[in-house]
Amino acid sequence: MLKTSCLLKRLNGNLLCTCRRLQNTTANETQSFRQRAWEASRQRYANYEHVHFSSFLEYKFMSLKKINPKNPTNYPPLDVVLEIERQMKPDDVSYPYNWMEDYEFYAGGNETGIIDSKHGTPDATVVPSTVPCNGCGAHLHCANSSMPGYIPSEIFKGRTTRELQSITCQRCHFLKHYNIALDVEVPPSAYVETISRIQDKFALAVIIVDLLDLPSSIWPGMQQVLGSKRPVFLVGNKVDLLPRDSNGYLSHVKHCLKQQFIQHGGFDALNIKNVSLISAKTGYGIEELITQLHKIWQYKGDVYLLGCTNVGKSTLFNILLNSDYCRPEASELVHKATTCAWPGTTLQMLKFPIFRPSDMRVYQRFKRLFSERSQRAALDKLRRDQAKETGATTAAQLIGHVGRTFDHRMDVDDAFAMPAGTQPITTLNDRKLEYREARWVYDTPGVMQPDQITPMLTTEELLLLQPTKMLKPRALRLAPNMSLFLGGLARIDLLQCSRDWVKLFIFAVESLPLLITETQQAEQVYKRYLGTPLLGVPIAGRDEKRLQRWSGLQCLKQDIVVQSSKTLTAQGRPEKQLNCDITLSSAGWIGLLLPDNSESVWRIWTPQAAGIYVREPSLIPLADRLVGKRIRNSLAYNTAKPFVFQK
């Protein structure tokens, strides 16, 4: 009886399905099955005119379980989406009213009791000090809250030079403790003037480049300021965030970095004494960089850490401060530089003394590294096996340990015991006899590159664009006369193509949404959804004037033509390598994979048309290995692991 009832249910289901197919065939005799399925999938965007794909609606909105992905129900209107986002978004960060109590020397308010909770009370009658801030290097004062080095008069007045040496300015304090960037007035010429002091000095320039912002993090005028004969160590930072498309990807990245630096930096290949790939965050490559500094530069002169804003100079300065490259006794006396996602956190030069690499010290350091080699190899193998088994991105990221061979700290039995008539040493006195002939490492302020769009962004937007894990490529199909928006920061138009479609790979932080529309309606769609979650950045929030200050998108005057040809491997099989990259300033870049023997024409838009370059060869040429199959009835491909372990 049970088997009979199950059979009847199955027959009724098949009959109902057949009737529905006949109805659809009768109604749409001219459409194929794929066309009808495509039209059904487009119905979900009925409330979003001219929008063909939105990563926010497809992924993030579905992850909130507001809609069933298997049910072709329309996405809710924009006002409903905005209300859901408003309920889930935390309140805006406000300035803490009691922030001055964090300072040891704060004794309360002034006589009137009226204190500006944001800036304190400035007093222009007090003479500024010559003591630099421990975080940014600017001289401390209480005259003007908009100038670098400001601290309120409630804290500044009555402080001795020794007490000021342990104080950070208000801007560094907010960056370090509250992750809030206060506006200060620093003209761009001040940065160049500070760096140009080394033009006549015999010193090494360690130029740091952000591999995620290449070549927009290479300052084109650096050679003219430093001199054409300047020895250079080229350092590519944030290598741990690059996807791993092959086992030898680091050699390819190093080749691309050197090529782009010669092309855009103005230096000759003979200037480059060494090329290193590091991660100042995880410590990868730092020990090798120190080894090359000892081997090539030795103790010939000072070392300057140079580069554009927000490339990781201060983070590298801090990690070198606690390594074999710094004198052991100076590590605790030199305060760390302020590090933050906000560009321009270093306003003046900070420095520490270099530990002279004598033959005996180099040998002792080599013994330490050699003894740690087997342990590091075992740890790398363990992480590699874990990444293969679990697919965890954190296990595949490049990490390193920065140790110390020499430690001259004095051990005492009683930490509170102190000889009579002595005072604790809290700062480094560079006028001492032992430091007069010393060589120094300087952390210089970042140079504002005109191709970077970071100065146009707020602190919240900068934090949103900062990747914290390995970039995961996202792939899309784009047909002629279609446009792709990378948030509100970039627009890519496919004007012409000799084939039906082109495969794009987007290398940007996942929180930056993607949106595809028709090219003719792109301007209208951009104005409609700017400041909404569909485009993400810029974020309107509670600042009504934020979108009014936004400059919008401007296109490059000349369209970009990309051609493809068939590439064969050693076995004679075609290899799917990206044809080229198109950089989109600080927002990221796209990789193009055109069909064989085809040609396409592109028009690229960014704020003020900044940072648009064609990069050949592609930085991640085998990115097609890092994405899945195309989603049925969609313009997107499935995402996959951002790493592979193969040749």
Describe this structure in words.
By secondary structure, the protein is α+β, with helices and mostly antiparallel strands. The protein contains 17 helices and 20 strands. It has helices at 2-27, 33-42, 55-63, 78-88, 153-156, 161-164, 170-177, 188-195, 222-226, 249-265, 286-297, 313-321, 359-390, 393-396, 459-465, 522-529, 546-549; strands at residues 51-54, 203-210, 232-237, 272-277, 302-307, 350-353, 440-443, 474-478, 482-486, 490-497, 502-507, 514-518, 554-555, 560-563, 580-584, 589-593, 599-606, 612-615, 627-630, 637-639. Strands 1, 9, 10, 12, 13, 14 and 17 form a 7-stranded antiparallel β-sheet that branches. A 6-stranded mixed β-sheet has the order 4-3-2-5-7-6, sandwiched between helices. Strand 15 (580-584) and strand 16 form a beta hairpin. It is globular and about 90 Å long. The chain starts with a helix and ends in an 8-residue tail after the last strand.
